[in-house]
Amino acid sequence: MDVARLIALRQSVRSYADQPVEEEKLAQLIEAVRLAPSASNSQPWKLILVTDPDLKDKVARATFSALVSFNKFAPEAPVLAVLVIEKPRVITQIGARLKDREFPLIDIGIAASQFCLRATELGLGTCMLGWFDEQAIKKLLHIPASRRIGLVITLGYAREGDPLRPKRRKQAEEMSSRNSY
């Protein structure tokens, strides 16, 4: 599938079929993240695929609460991908300070995008979650206190009959320009 088609097809899936994701597809998703570009090739991420059903449900429950319920669909997903931000190389840290840029955040965004596009190509659905109880998930997954979780991504097969929704996006003229702001 060409990249333009993948970009058009990729959407946030919030309803998953009760169907496991095959190991060979998980391996291909790991490879997509492994090959993602990063500042100074620092690869400042650790990808944790949560596939154990009991553990996955506990992690999924840490993505919503009684007050914040918009991720209540997360337990339906058979897999959760947790992207942990690792410390970048010293040269990247120096460059980040000099340029006042958070390169690891940019890098995990790229890695997450590659993960989601590859999942789409493999017939899988994803949804990136930025709202979660970081401390609870760190405890569940034994993530060191010195690390941060960048994103949690739900992964699985979209429930049958979940149609491709039209993308609501700004018009090109609203979000882009040429030669000046």
How is this structure best described in words?
There is one protein chain. With 181 residues, the protein is an alpha+beta fold. The protein has one domain: NADH Oxidase, CATH 3.40.109. Helix content is 38%, strand content 15%. The protein has 7 helices and 4 strands. It has helices spanning 3-9, 23-34, 53-61, 90-99, 103-121, 134-141, 172-175; strands at residues 45-50, 79-85, 125-129, 148-156. The chain has a 4-stranded antiparallel β-sheet with strand order 1-2-4-3, sandwiched between helices. α1 packs across α5 and α2 runs antiparallel to α5. The longest helix is centred in the middle third of the chain and has 19 residues, at 103-121. It is globular, with a radius of gyration of 17 Å. The model has no long low-confidence stretch (mean pLDDT 93). Belongs to the nitroreductase family. Residues 8-157 form the Nitroreductase domain. This is Nitroreductase. GO terms for molecular function: oxidoreductase activity. InterPro entries: Nitroreductase, Nitroreductase-like.
